[in-house]
Amino acid sequence: MAVEEEGLRVFQSVRIKIGEAKNLPTYPGPNKMRDCYCTVNLDQEEVFRTKIVEKSLCPFYGEDFYCEIPRTFRHLSFYIFDRDVFRRDSIIGKVAIQKEDLQKYHNRDTWFQLQHVDADSEVQGKVHLELRLSEVITDTGVVCHKLATRVLECQGLPIVNGQCDPYATVTLAGPSRSEAKKTKVKKKTNNPHFDEVFYFEVTRPSSYNKKSHFDIEDVDEVDKMEIRVDLWNASNLKFGDEFLGELRLPLKFLRQSSSYEAWYFLQPRDNGNKSLKPDDLGSLRLNVVYTEDHVFSSDYYSPLRDLLLKSADVEPVSASAAHILGEVCREKQEAAIPLVRLFLHYGRIVPFISAIANAEVKRTQDPNTIFRGNSLTSKCIDETMKLAGMHYLQVTLKPIIDEICQVHKPCEIDPVKLKDGENLENNRENLRQYVDRIFTVITKSGVSCPTVMCDIFFSLRESAAKRFQGDLDVRYTAVSSFIFLRFFAPAILSPNLFQLTPHHPDPQTSRTLTLISKTIQTLGSLSKSKSANFKESYMATFYDYFNEQKYADAVKNFLDLISSSGRRDHKSIEQPILLKEGFMIKRAQGRKRFGMKNFKKRWFRLTNHEFTYQKSKGDHPLCSIPIENILAVERLEEESFKMKNMFQVIQPERRVLYIQANNCVEAKDWIDILTKVSQCNKKRLTVYHPSAYLNGHWLCCKATADNTPGCTPCTGGLPANIQLDIDGDRETERIYSLFNLYMPKLEKMQEACGSKSVYDGPEEEEYSTFIIDDPKETYKTLKLIIEGVGTLEQEHAQYKRDKFKKTKYGSQEHPIGDKSFQTYIRQQSEISAHSI
């Protein structure tokens, strides 16, 4: 979800690898071990939770998490919890990274010391205040100074234990006095509107002999005073109300202007308590990649986008803009991700990959090494399979992977690693059955393979067969090196990375999947001496089960099917595809005439056929909504039920299902996937009501009839293809950023072209890393790239200058205390000074 800013969209995303924790403090009991899990939080809102690692003080998680961030945030935080069966789970420690510091740790494995957590430090949100200091003349002719403090509203307060009933206390404090006042409690909202004014007498009455100035004693007294605003959650628990954050403002700043209005970020409370030493709590290994894309309207990107999309038609392809990006990037993966998404979006992925694959095949001398390196071709095909083949994996592998994770059959075949009581022959038989079943579902799944993958495999097969006409197997190995080695085998080995399981498997299951993955990979390789592929003798012995011709024939038939052109209609898949599932809270739809419209927790399940919910996972559905009956999916304003992260699924006859997701990321994911899967419905609505129908009227437009057409346009359409929700402008912006980052290499490549076209001798060592088949054509493309990147760079610089002039510190968008904005102001000031 993009944040709109005057002609610009800002996208935020984060990719996190949670590695392991070490040296956690021992449990104060005889066992001393802990059952720990880790959560990922945007400020105080939990958006992801790892599995629980039992009985360990150095738990290994090995989990990956990616999300689009749908709102502003100040901290990305990680909490380590110790599970407690009988009481609330206890927090061991946390890692909190400020948003402006995320780039320091970009894509680097880093050990972070866990910090102590207390209620006074866990704050988020902002408050809107207005202060006015004025002189008041009393009836007797004396003057005193009064402070009016208006608490208007707060936004983004944390939800504590599932609820937020906030109120504010306002305190005028000085060296010898303290006076406090309190607002009303606002129920069930973390965005409370108070709009209450409190008056404080700042100075004692004195003879009125000056105009609009304090006397000397008054000035000293005012300078020592401060106004403090504390936010609290009114709790029914015996432990008292929870602290949500505070703000301290010295009154001396009002001497320059007697009236001041601004937004402020709430701050932690400094209560003087000494926290534990960081070393006492252990550490956590993380890898964080935070990305912020600033995307202009589509016409800004036309020159660079058109240049990239022509890449498949450029002769030679090494002179194309897309190929050049792969040459200058430090890692091919950097270039492959935005290129594949851009070409998929515009329907040009097959000709582009065909062109670069054909060029790579021509440079390959040995058919046994075809597509084995980490080239741009390999990385682009990998990324295409991940995007286009994710649901293919769900249909093919997920049922049996789920069974392996749940049943825990012993499958260890290494005699050294056998546990007490296990039988080697029984384990081999268990593993053989699993391998046989997975091999069968793979080789019989050819009809389900996505069309775009089949078209690419057809191109690879043709190029390889033409280049190595004497090798009859190369047409198979060229395809199997991708579909088995880079697609099915990695998905079996790490199912959590391919969305087949929510978490990294436990050690025993992980070992079973490793053995299966090795065997499947070897079966698919069609190598002449397969037993020799295994370093371990026990694997070679196990593989003897599969040394039959029927396995090789099945692989070849499967490869023939998925690499033949125009083999079948890709819409022939009738099996439902599970798209998303999980617990959420729903409001009763009023299907029963006299039933209560209360809120209940239910297990929701979405396939490409229907949207259902039931009491628990695996139960019979209580309600089923066919996809064709979903007319719109939109957010629901918080004022409707005083609940955050709500959305609505609108059905025929104005029936609406109101749902609350667990957090903002989950809400966005559900809205997106429901919108995509129902996008092609013929009766989709164009308008909707952003608030609920309560007490005889719509809260948004006040219309009284429940069948009144919506008052707000529905959000913009999304691609109907569930798998490929891609923003072409965003991907072009990412490619521009890469070109800009590697500009020195682009210039070096220009020099290499000039050197090569003038001097036709041995290459200079500094230019030997570039593939340049046609120096003149490559130089022309490089010149166009540098011009296009320069133009976009100027547009970004101009936008920043304009924004710098317009932005007000203390506004709702940039409250006082916004460190990222302070850094931005400092950078812009330095740029302005430098330009002057």
TrEMBL record:
Residues 1-112, 123-264 form the C2 domain. One of its GO terms (cellular component) is cytoplasmic side of plasma membrane. Residues 331-525 form the Ras-GAP domain. Pfam families: BTK, C2, PH, RasGAP. PROSITE patterns: C2, PH_DOMAIN, RAS_GTPASE_ACTIV_1, RAS_GTPASE_ACTIV_2, ZF_BTK. GO terms for molecular function: calcium channel regulator activity; GTPase activator activity; zinc ion binding. GO terms for biological process: intracellular signal transduction; negative regulation of Ras protein signal transduction; platelet activation. Keywords: Acetylation, GTPase activation, Metal-binding, Phosphoprotein, Repeat, Zinc, Zinc-finger. It comes from the Eukaryota. Residues 577-679 form the PH domain. This is Ras GTPase-activating protein 3. The lineage of its organism: Eukaryota, Metazoa, Chordata, Craniata, Vertebrata.
